[in-house]
């Protein structure tokens, strides 16, 4: 029983687990930010191409 308690205590004191969780949370936040930026940029570029297309179409 003492060995089990020492293992549990070592697990709770160890900082490897929380560090991995922190990195996973940071990665998730970075991915969400990147997806939002790409989506916003895509919408903006689409609007620009639509404007250019309509301008070129009307000048022919």
From TrEMBL:
Annotated keywords: Membrane, Transmembrane, Transmembrane helix
Record's InterPro entries? Flp_Fap
A Pfam family that the UniProt record links to this protein:
Flp_Fap
Transmembrane ranges? Answer: 20-38
Asked whether the UniProt record includes Transmembrane helix among its keywords, one would answer yes
The name this protein goes by in its record: Flp/Fap pilin component
